[in-house]
Amino acid sequence: MQAPIRSELRKVAYVPPKLPHHCMSQHTNGWEMEAYRYPLPVECIAQSPLGRRDASKLLVVHSGSGEVEHHVFNELPGILTTIPGTPHLVFNQTKVVAARLYLRKPTGGAVELLLTRPLSPSTDPQVVLGSTASSTWECMIGGKNVRADMVLGDETSTFQARVVERKGAEAIVQLSWQTDEALSQVLDTIGHVPLPPYITRPDDGADKQRYQTVFAKDEGSAAAPTAGLHFTSELLETLRTQNISRSTLTLHVGLGTFKPVDADNAIDHVMHKEDVVIQLAMLDELLQTLNNTAPFIIPVGTTAMRSLESAYWLGVQLLAGRSLEQEPIVVPQFIAFDESLPHARAADAFYALRTWMQEQGLTTLSFQTQLMIAPGARIGVVGGLITNFHQPGSTLLLLVATLLGERWRAVYQEAIDSRYRFLSYGDAMLVIRTHDGETPST
Questions:
Q1: β-strands 100-104, 57-62: how paired?
Q2: Backbone angles phi, psi at 96, to 5 degrees
Q3: pTM of the predicted model, to two decimals?
Q4: Per-residue pLDDT for 407 more than 90?
Q5: CA–CA separation, 417 vs 433, rounded Å?
Q6: For residues 391 and 259, what is the distance between their CA atoms, to the nearest angstrom?
Q7: pLDDT tens across 275-323, in order?
Q8: What are the extents of the domains in the chain?
Q9: Which of 86, 397, 430, 433 pairs with 439 at a CA distance of 20 to 30 A?
Q10: Which CATH number fits domain 99-192: 1.10.4160, 2.40.10, 1.10.238, 2.40.50?
Q11: Cis, peptide link before residue 121, omega less than 30° from 0
């Protein structure tokens, strides 16, 4: 493997900035959330999955020309072979847990919790879910007159959740139970599949299998990386036989991904931290692709894209001589707009991160990301994106608009007019970043 250029600049501590002042008017005038709302007919919101995962529709969009093509998802391997480059898919292998809990107050009133992220005794969801010890979690909460120190219970078990703190729809709770089961086993018994609120039916037995990707591995997600729901084992095998390479990483989906944007302008929206895990082997795989002719890295889902771009910005900081020694490592929300950082080649950034991991003796890197990708963000890695169709006024729609520009609205209208199914159990879109027929340079 040919080594990309490395920076030998002096390492200094990096204080993550807010959105740089000189970028304020340049970018955020285009972040008024009213501009990212669109009329979504209720009948377009998929309430259940199709009988077969890869039978979903697939809208292929060329971002430069705005040209769209209508396909079925199982045609993806053939479509990827027509891209003028070397496609490489990146999957998020997080596994959804039964994180929705229906509990009762001491007075008998109903309370709903959605566990989103552990705080102690570890922030690693797999560690906490595999433990029999009490743990503290961030969560979303619904219920009237729920106050700090109130103990919520489950009528069918010894499980309890003590409210440590509540701020509106968010809370911190301490979980405990009087059995020798691990928390994941407890949740499998009393918890429910955390279907999003726009799916108006209760979860059922089929959701345990269908609201989970076939490649899910690392427990800890409060929502599925829904673009991955379209893949079957057979489709993955077809991709392999056609020599379309792929890698995996993990982002445990939490509040940062699906928290609504309540602010009028996205600059005032705070992205929650989400946990990302990448492997040294994945960086080697990406570098191998990036050393090919016309590399074309395509994340499967917005979570995979945010993870890849977050890893890129870690590498860019190293190239700029900045330190990653803070604990925990956090990728700040507006780093993609920080013009004091170079817009390095992806190969250089990933090589710098790989070298740093080796120097630290790491084969696995865990970090947190608050990265927001919105119009004007510098995209360092991806040449395309496989994604579902997202809610009006969401940070996910801002991400899509970053790739499509103002064409996003016409593309979404095309999908509505063509009776595509929207949101988590809906159909998919493949965005190919093209500019006047040229693939983007990485």
A1: unpaired
A2: -75, 135
A3: 0.91
A4: yes
A5: 23
A6: 11
A7: 999 999 999 999 999 998 789 999 999 999 999 999 999 999 999 999 9
A8: 21-95+220-432, 99-192
A9: 397
A10: 2.40.10
A11: yes
